């Protein structure tokens, strides 16, 4: 008899979680109901009190505030000890194991991201690492989802999530929550860049373009629009990326070459670039909302200058200083250079989608 009972409980303990967990909950409720039936006065005629007593008993805490007084109640308690303590121990062990397994799946990139207004980074390299650090430092509310084929998440942070897979695949993009994302940053594949760029530079931008095309196709199918920024190794390929609905580009090679040449003709220009791009610098480039009183660019320029900010651009137009008397469009996207304190007075936010330009 005892051997058969032992086999039954051994089998129950090793049941899969979807059966075992409900069984344990049912066991606790049934034991509480039996205890309440045997000794209603002892447990104040309360099912909650009875459940409380069963759990403290099975957890071997035993506060002693409630205890059976009848022989039948004491016998039931003995049965509860014999059958339940091992069951609760296994229950707790399975919970801990399940949590560890979930964390393993998360780090391994096998879980779906369920949040929204996050930033998706495609491709892991040193630039992606710096971008993650930048987001985590400058924006304390936005999550990051990294897509790559690494074995596990390279950086552990509560706001960093990982999806392991091919970024050209629709399933991977949906797993990363693309339709609900604030934006996507596509970095050039560093392996392709290191191994094949010298032989065939088209391969680097070609792989990035494939990902951008896959994202555009999914956006069109779902009827959504996500801001996409892509790292482009060759400026001649930007036209191709525009056809894939990429919004902004980072022509890495041209930017470095331009800065290097400018440093010869204008000494100290690279220091200015570095200061503007640095997280440690108090000054930065931010987007500010258009005010109704700003009818012309001159109005906006003067009002912002009085508050300690310099208006430098409307979207990608850096020549507004040549057309100060032109009207400010209703959909203007104005950028200023200022510090965070000034930005707060103006009414902008350092954590907006446009945010700080780096």
TrEMBL record:
Major localization listed first in the record, in broad terms: membrane
Alphabetical GO biological process terms: monoatomic ion transmembrane transport; potassium ion transport
Q: Which domain of life is it from?
A: Bacteria
Task: Quote the InterPro entries the UniProt record gives.
Answer: K_chnl_dom, NAD(P)-bd_dom_sf, RCK_N, Trk_Ktr_HKT_K-transport
Q: Please name one Pfam family that this protein belongs to.
A: Ion_trans_2
Question: What name appears for this protein in its UniProt entry?
Answer: Potassium channel protein
Specify the species: Paenibacillus whitsoniae
Annotated compartments: Cell membrane
Query: Which keywords has UniProt assigned to this entry?
Result: Ion channel, Ion transport, Membrane, Transmembrane, Transmembrane helix, Transport
Q: Is this entry keyworded rRNA processing?
A: no
Which residues are listed as membrane-spanning?
20-38, 50-69, 75-96
GO cellular component terms listed in the entry, alphabetical order? plasma membrane
Q: Which residues form the RCK N-terminal domain?
A: 119-250
Residues forming the Potassium channel domain are: 25-99
Kindly give the membrane topology term recorded for this protein.
Answer: Multi-pass membrane protein
Q: Is the Transmembrane keyword given for this protein?
A: yes
């Amino acid at each position: 008899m005892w051997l058969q009972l032992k086999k039954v409980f051994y089998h129950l303990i090793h049941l899969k979680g979807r059966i075992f967990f409900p069984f344990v909950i049912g066991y606790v409720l049934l034991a509480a109901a039996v205890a309440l039936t045997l000794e209603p006065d002892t447990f104040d005629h309360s099912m909650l009190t009875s459940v409380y007593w069963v759990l403290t008993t099975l957890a071997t805490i035993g506060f002693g505030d409630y205890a059976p007084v009848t022989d039948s109640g004491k016998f039931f308690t003995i049965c509860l000890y014999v059958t339940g303590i091992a069951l609760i121990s296994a229950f707790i062990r399975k919970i801990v194991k399940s949590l560890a397994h979930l964390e393993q799946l998360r780090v391994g990139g096998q879980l779906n991201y369920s949040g929204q207004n996050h930033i998706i980074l495609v491709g892991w390299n040193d630039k992606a690492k710096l971008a993650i650090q930048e987001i985590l430092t400058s924006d304390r509310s936005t999550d990051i989802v990294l897509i790559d084929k690494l074995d596990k998440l390279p950086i552990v942070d509560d706001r960093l999530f990982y999806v392991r897979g091919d970024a050209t695949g629709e399933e991977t993009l949906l797993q990363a929550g693309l339709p609900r994302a604030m934006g996507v940053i596509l970095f050039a594949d560093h392996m392709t860049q290191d191994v094949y760029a010298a032989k065939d530079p088209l391969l680097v931008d070609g792989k990035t373009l494939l990902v951008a095309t896959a994202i555009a196709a999914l956006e069109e199918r779902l009827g959504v629009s996500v801001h996409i920024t892509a790292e482009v190794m060759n400026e001649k390929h930007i036209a191709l990326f525009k056809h894939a609905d990429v919004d902004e580009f980072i022509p890495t090679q041209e930017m470095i070459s331009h800065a290097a040449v400018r440093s010869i003709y204008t000494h100290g220009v690279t220091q200015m670039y570095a200061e503007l791009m640095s997280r440690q610098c108090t000054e930065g480039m931010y987007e500010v909302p258009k005010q109704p009183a700003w009818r012309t660019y001159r109005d906006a320029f003067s009002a912002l200058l009085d508050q300690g900010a310099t208006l430098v651009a409307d979207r990608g137009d850096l020549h507004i200083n040549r057309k100060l008397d032109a009207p400010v469009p209703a959909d203007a996207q104005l950028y200023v250079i200022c510090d965070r304190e000034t930005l707060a007075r103006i009414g902008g936010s350092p954590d907006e989608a446009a945010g700080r330009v780096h």
